[in-house]
Amino acid sequence: MPPAIRELYEEARGVLPASSRASAALLRVALEGLLEEAGYEKGSLADRLKRAHEEGKLNAKIYELAEALRLAGNAAAHYEPWKIDPSQGQEDREIILALFEFLNEVTEELIAKPKRLEEMKQKLSGRLREEGP
Predict the structure, then answer these.
(1) Domain that holds residue 23
(2) For residues 10-38, b (16+ Cβ closer than 10 Å) or e, as one string?
(3) 44-70: per-residue pLDDT in tens?
(4) To 5 degrees, how large is the angle CA 56–CA 61–CA 67?
């Protein structure tokens, strides 16, 4: 996870005991940051997620998770208590904990996996050049 995104993630974790809404809103901001890191800088968050999915950067399941995170973050930021209600206690906390997992999955798809694959490609292409056809 890129350092700036990790900072938001840790902040979201830190405020969770006091405010599930603040935590969800911070996770949404982190999702936006991940998309920027992956080259999706222009447009609404919904549009950027859709583009990443259409371009094959997010598979269908991860796209659905990212959309759920986006919607939960929107609900938190705009105070839509029917979606994220601090009075729900443990149930609400479990939803927010799932959002952390969602963000981890999106990070894996957009950042970590492409980086690992590029490193493998570089190692293999170097080896193939050394050995020749």
Answers:
(1) 3-131
(2) ebbeebbeebbbbbbbbbbbbbbbbbebb
(3) 999 999 999 999 999 999 999 899 999
(4) 90
Q: How many domains does the chain have?
A: 1
Distance of CA 24 to the CA centre of its chain: 12
pLDDT at 82 over 50: no
Spatial CA neighbour of 24 closest among 76, 67, 63: 76
Residue 9 has φ and ψ, to the nearest 5°, of: -60, -45
Whether the CB-CB separation of 109 and 52 falls below 8 Å is answered with no
* Identity of residue 103: L
Q: Helix crossing, 45-54 with 20-37: angle to 10°?
A: 50
| Contact predicate 65/102, CB 8 Å | yes
- Give the three-state DSSP class for 40: coil
- Per DSSP, the three-state class of 73 is helix
Residue 30 in this model has a pLDDT that exceeds 70:
yes
Predicted model pTM: 0.81
CA-wise closest residue to 77 among 41, 26, 42: 26
